[in-house]
Automatic annotation (TrEMBL):
Annotated region described as Disordered, given as residue ranges: 1-22
Pfam families cross-referenced by the UniProt entry: Alpha-amylase (PF00128)
Record-given protein name: Glycosyl hydrolase family 13 catalytic domain-containing protein
Superkingdom of the source species: Bacteria
BP-aspect Gene Ontology terms: carbohydrate metabolic process
InterPro entries cross-referenced by the UniProt entry: GH, GH13_cat_dom
Comp. bias (Polar residues): 1-11
PANTHER family, A to Z: ALPHA-AMYLASE FAMILY MEMBER
SMART domains: Aamy
Domain Glycosyl hydrolase family 13 catalytic: 20-350
Length: 439
């Protein structure tokens, strides 16, 4: 079920293995993805800085900025049209503000007890990058002498970097260190990580670790990524959630993937969970309501209580749920947040229950059989004396589940926490209903 087929170049096993345990500061936090150009009407670092206190109140712990570098604009004047085609890895998009503005923003984020990671595209550059003129050896060159295009769906034939060249490894390492040492950022979310040699990633991870305790996220699923990264993308779960919401597959396949992950990955693995298909290849895939319908809250509860670290897109709490930063700029966030409180509650749930913490810091996962209805998914997480039981009705019809002895002595998290239900009682659950029991 888990897709981790090799891409070119092959991320073969590295010569030295990094301890991929999550940084301690990330153990109980979720990730909130921010597009600076879209989050506020002004689309600047300075305007976003004013939002930090509110985001802190919502329980946001780790902010992830989508690419903030100067990018190749192609035939358009819109600097966000092709943000994954970078002109200069040490640059900032001037529309967002100055280096001083960015540094002030990072300091404000840290002052509020939050952390910042940046998206990073190391697989290719734009055709206008200085390296294409000064260091042609940094690129993969085809037999006819042209740049080899990067092997992804949205690259538009941008030139792929040649990581067999030691000098380009050093240059890219220097560029990543620049953001850590000069601005104090806390990590990177590396796009198309499987297109880059794992030997490079272990090398850069070692260099970054000498500066501070860094969080490294990889867009990919191959187990060897954990030689250098703390977290990998869980695109398969995202796709399954969409299929379950549309009634195309049974809910127990979500459990099957979690079990498969436990067998495939190292003991301290952590996967980044996110709702629906909202990746770099599906920028305009629609709103959360359009994709998940009334099931989006139940799916979010799964996101927060299953093993892994949750990723929430800015605007998801406002039922916008679009990741359209490759497209127009008509969908700036701002204004009222319709169900922001729901995600604040989920952030609180995660932080206050060690069983739900990220990676090796969290609790054991076990599926529980509590219903004859196949739409019901129930599982427990247990760490020391903390037990969390999640029950989800992943369907559009009413179902029943049995109150079992595993739930004895627990309190309900949603609704009235008093729990005087007798063991063996049949409990009705509405369409797309959910409940969490805590001991």
């Amino acid at each position: 079920m888990i897709s981790c087929h090799q891409k070119t170049p092959d991320p073969s096993a590295s010569d030295e293995v990094h301890d991929s345990s999550l940084p301690d500061w990330s153990k109980d936090k979720s990730i909130l993805e921010i597009n600076i150009g879209k989050y506020t009407p002004e689309g600047t670092f300075a305007s976003f800085q004013k939002e930090i206190p509110r985001l802190k109140e919502s329980g946001a712990g780790i902010l992830k900025f989508t690419l903030i570098h100067e990018s190749d604009t192609g035939d358009t004047d819109n600097p966000e049209k092709h943000p994954y085609s970078i002109n200069d890895f040490k640059s900032l998009n001037s529309h967002y503000g100055s280096p001083e503005d960015f540094k002030n923003l990072v300091e404000t984020i840290h002052d509020h007890g939050m952390y910042l990671i940046l998206e990073w595209q190391a697989a290719h550059t734009s055709k206008n990058h200085e390296w294409t003129r000064t260091h042609p050896e940094y690129y993969i060159i085809e037999a006819e002498g042209n740049h080899s295009p990067s092997a992804n769906a949205y690259s538009m034939e941008v030139p792929a970097i040649n990581y067999t060249e030691v000098k380009v490894q050093d240059a890219m390492t220097e560029a990543m260190l620049y953001w850590v040492t000069n601005f104090g950022i806390d990590g990177f979310d590396c796009i198309d990580a499987e297109l880059v040699s794992i030997n490079f990633w272990t090398k850069v991870r070692k260099a970054l670790n000498q500066s501070k305790q860094i969080l490294m996220v990889a867009e990919g699923a191959h187990p060897t990524l954990y030689d250098a990264f703390d977290i990998t993308y869980s695109k398969d779960i995202s796709e399954l959630q969409l299929a379950v919401s549309n009634g195309k597959i049974a809910s127990d396949l979500l459990d099957s993937v979690v079990v498969e992950e436990q067998e495939l990955y190292p003991n301290d693995y952590c996967r980044m969970r996110y709702l629906f298909i909202q990746d770099h290849h599906n920028e305009d895939s629609g709103s959360m309501d359009a994709l998940l319908g009334p099931g989006h809250e139940a799916m979010a509860v799964f996101l927060y209580t299953a093993p892994g670290i949750p990723l929430i897109y800015a605007g998801q709490e406002a039922l916008i749920g679009r990741r359209s930063f490759l497209l127009d700029q008509d969908n700036r966030q701002g204004g009222e947040y319709e169900i922001a409180g729901f995600y604040s509650v989920l952030n609180y749930l995660k932080k206050e229950n060690q069983s739900l913490w990220n990676g090796i810091h969290g609790g054991e996962y076990r599926k529980l059989e509590v219903s004859t209805f196949p739409e019901v998914l129930c599982f427990s997480r247990m760490k020391d004396d903390n037990i969390v039981i999640t029950i989800l009705n992943l369907s559009d019809r009413k179902v029943y589940y049995n109150y079992t002895d595993a739930m004895e002595g627990t309190k309900r998290f949603f609704g009235n926490e008093d729990n005087n239900t007798e063991i063996g009682s049949a409990i009705e659950m509405e369409a797309w209903g959910y409940q969490v029991f805590i001991k």
